Amino acid sequence: MISGLIRNLRAVGAAALCLVAASTAQADTWPSRNITLVLPFAAGSGTDTTTRLISQHLSQALGVGIVIENKAGANGMLAASYVAKAAPDGYTLLVTTNTTHSANPYLLKSLTYDPVKDFTPIARTGDLPFMLVVNPEVQAKTVGELVAYGKANPGKLSYASGSSSAIVSGATFAHNAGLDLLHVPYKSSPPALNDVMGGRVSMMFVDILTGLPHVNGNALRALAVTTKDRSPLVPNLPSMQEAGVPDFDISSWQGYFGHRRHAEGDRDPAQRRDPEDRREAGDQGTARHPRHGRVLGHAGAARHVRERTARAVGEADHQREDREAVRTVSCRGRGAEPGAPLS
Which pTM does this prediction carry? Predict the structure, then answer.
């Protein structure tokens, strides 16, 4: 299943870079040198894995090198700010998720970039569903058992996060299930997963691509997916709603952004992708949205998740009693971000 997901991401990734060519002022000569893709997450994260796989085919198709530059930290703010200040020539692009462009405005007190004004949306390359995983030593094999244990032992369960989707998922779980959870934030998912597998943190919401190999290796136990319906990637796992947690439907989009001063250009030819690419992109539940690869669809997805995140955490920013549902600790020396969101 993961191999099928990867094939689909390659197809939509190729279309994404075609859109860059159409939206760059030097479209007639672009690209003439290496292209740098800046990522807000560390090596080994879901975004990193899919981008590296896609970049191999992009390099062959475009005839230039694709350089991956990981700039993890500050909940993606370092990478986003870097691209926002780069030259608007189409050679420095941001490959990101809803963390930087949808959630950060509601999770951080201040930003060093404007997610709307500082960027040109290029293409949405897919949606990454998340799943809830726990350390095998946790005495719960279902979400219901986990909720029951958490209510019987308030404050004893903790959850790690390496992205905004993980933060919002954990906060939503705590709020909707009525649990007192300890939030442990990290710069990216890989170090967070290490601490969950090591038993230092109880659980985590992680994208399926990153977490599934560890589940298959019995280092983690998967309990549910975060989308409203079951995922074809892990059909045996129930959704959080199916498992008894109401109003739970969270996933992470992934896409390409360029500098805000990219010329509008004629994007239409690049948007008219091969229909076979569209069919292939939907096979594994990663890129099912009919507007994937289209500029307007990409911008709309970012706006939709911003609105959803505002609903999910807005009250937590303004009402003290909601914020107390999720407590946060800083894990200095273990990859965590001191002073991270929702603290």
Answer: 0.69
